Amino acid sequence: MDNLLKGIEEVLLMGPGPSCVHPDVYKALSRDTLGHLDPYFIKIMDEIQVLLQEVMNTKNQLTLPISGTGSAGMESCFVNLIEPKDRVLILINGVFGKRMQEVSTRLGANVDTIEFDWGTPIGPEVVKEKLENNTYEVIATVHAETSTGVLNPIAEISKLLKGRDSLFLVDVVTSLGGIEVSLDGWNIDASYSGSQKCLSCPPGLAPVSFSDNAFSKIMNRETKVPNWYLDMSLIGQYWQQDRKRVYHHTAPVNMLYALYQSLVLFKEEGPSNVFKRHVECHLKLKEGLKGLGLEMFVEEPYRLPMLNAVTIPDGVDEAEVRKRLRMEHKIEIGGGLGPLAGKIWRIGLMGHTARIENVERLLKALDAILN
Amino acid sequence: MDNLLKGIEEVLLMGPGPSCVHPDVYKALSRDTLGHLDPYFIKIMDEIQVLLQEVMNTKNQLTLPISGTGSAGMESCFVNLIEPKDRVLILINGVFGKRMQEVSTRLGANVDTIEFDWGTPIGPEVVKEKLENNTYEVIATVHAETSTGVLNPIAEISKLLKGRDSLFLVDVVTSLGGIEVSLDGWNIDASYSGSQKCLSCPPGLAPVSFSDNAFSKIMNRETKVPNWYLDMSLIGQYWQQDRKRVYHHTAPVNMLYALYQSLVLFKEEGPSNVFKRHVECHLKLKEGLKGLGLEMFVEEPYRLPMLNAVTIPDGVDEAEVRKRLRMEHKIEIGGGLGPLAGKIWRIGLMGHTARIENVERLLKALDAILN
Predict the structure, then answer these.
(1) Is B259 helix (H, G, I), strand (E, B) or coil?
(2) CB contact under 8 A, B250 and A40
(3) Beta B167-171 vs B138-142: how paired, if at all?
(4) ipTM value
């Protein structure tokens, strides 16, 4: 039979993830598989935890990659922290905030929401008002809304929660490794990301981190976590460094090699250099798009460098443009989701994708197609 | 910093999984990442579904790999099929039957069990008696008990369920790709496996399959599946070939390349040749162990070829033997789980591990250590 893998072409991944993968990460991925309880593999696990704590800026012991994609990270944060009837407030300004609402509603939480226009950031004033007359077990929002390209003011929201008992749950899927993320600095209690965004590893792992307060809530639940696979009290026994490793499920060994390598690359380049590279690419893209007569969808102060939402000009067949980019130029960009479908393109500049030559290649291709 | 990946040695994986990975599968793993909605990637997805249907012997449309390890497969079968208070019967004779009990209890099912001595198979007579006075929404058991090395009589149990309304849920984690598995022949309604056993792909994916009856139960649930990540009605919309692909979560693209390649290798060698190779290695191992004075834990008719439970002789420090195998001979075998810890070794002959030269290497190493 024909082997389809032979026909895979290298595509420049400039969508909302997965992003381009560094050659060293591909190499890591195909290293010899070790057993999930092998002493040498456990050394690698230990180091992954340390590297994740560094990129997330946290001392949280319970920091590890979940064996699933970013959405499994979201599921794991909610299913561990929520018990039926818990009051949850979700601050929504895009698809991933909406998904938080769906996930926590399914888990039986008593869900309250504040929704902001998609393309604008969460407004701390509105949140402050809401908090004056309400208490919640969990308050959740998204740092970098992948569906709109908006940066939310997590530090400001965090300040509003000081002195309250609520656990603060933040999605850092698209931000982690591309802009500063500081779990401890922002008093975040539970957070999750994905391997395939700015960490530039293939999709399949979801780094998560839980504060001592969050862990304590998990250990004092009245009911068992209704999801054995994602029960952090069990997964923690496999990952925690100071205890005997207890088998829970077979870890995705080769994916973990890849994540390790991508975290090493991040550390070697240095966070400030990585963040600078993302900003430079973003500015270059913004200028280039302007030259092509295209406009950014999000106002300047709230724009994410790694996820650029671009307004589709009137009369342009947006799907056709993406198709031609993919087929003629081997470049992938993303379309809009939900109410933004057909209205924006999403151009990712994440991790290994965020290089000036990639921006130039995209601009040239867009110019050829649009003009 | 030192890169730990450079220190990874090739270990002969003869434990209960992960098993040895074929060089072509490693190569597949590090092919260029494509987007999860890329048209070429979707072709590969389509082919994975066809190949999975073949190895599982089913026409079930809803046959696909879950983005998680084998345990996520178990979770997905139960969480989709069970609603609170549903009556579930679990036939238990090892760790993985016990885990089914734990998973379904957490989901609020009304769980009934029959437990058989570990190391012996499920007895259809006892099941028959139980069914005379009871009805269940779901009846679940394990085909190949990885914790004991016992083959359960799924075809016989299946016959007992004829004419009943119960859905039949079977774990084929360790059996799939090593002995015959026939979902349609055995009227199985929901089944899951893992990539890292006889399919010889690294851990990280869980092939699952749901019959039309199972799918109908999912679509007619009174409550939404309390697990957004594993909701088959949503995942199905991303995988189903005859509908528009709807984004659910970012698929683990490179792991799927690896699974594709391992399924291609299975098909190219041919199921009957693969199964024969497993039996030959098992017989060779059994003879060799006998020569070393070691005894099989399971009676002959119920022995799995790919998972050989060996009774640890009196006076042998079993952990020390496993440690020396790993350190001096670069071979991994498994210990016992739960009540069998310290009583058995588990020697895996799964997929690419099941080669005569590997059996000979292990026997030689065991001889050097024990004698």
Answers:
(1) helix
(2) no
(3) parallel
(4) 0.97
Yes or no: say if B161 and B191 are a contact pair by the CB < 8 Å rule: no
Residue matched to tokens 């390209």: A149
Q: Does B124 touch chain A (CB under 8 A)?
A: no
- Taking the CA of residue A351 and the nearest CA in chain B, the distance in Å comes to 14
Domain covering B24-267: architecture: 3-Layer(aba) Sandwich (3.40)
pTM for the full predicted model = 0.98
DSSP state of A118: B
Asked if the B4-18+270-370 domain carries CATH number 3.90.1150.10, the reply is yes
* Cis-peptide into A226, omega within 30 deg: no
Exposed/middle/buried for residue B295 (C-beta within 10 Å: 0-12, 13-18, 19+): exposed
Residues of chain A found within 8 Å of residue B257, distances taken between Cβ atoms: 5, 8
Give chain A positions within 8 Å (CB) of B264: 1, 3
pLDDT tens for each residue of B203-252: 999 999 999 999 999 999 999 999 999 999 999 999 986 667 888 999 99
Taking the CA of residue B291 and the nearest CA in chain A, the distance in Å comes to 28
Task: Indicate the fold that domain A8-18+270-370 takes in CATH.
Answer: Aspartate Aminotransferase, domain 1 (3.90.1150)
CATH of A23-267, one of 3.40.640.10, 3.40.50.300, 2.60.120.430, 3.90.226.10: 3.40.640.10
Alpha-carbon Rg for chain A, nearest whole angstrom, is 21
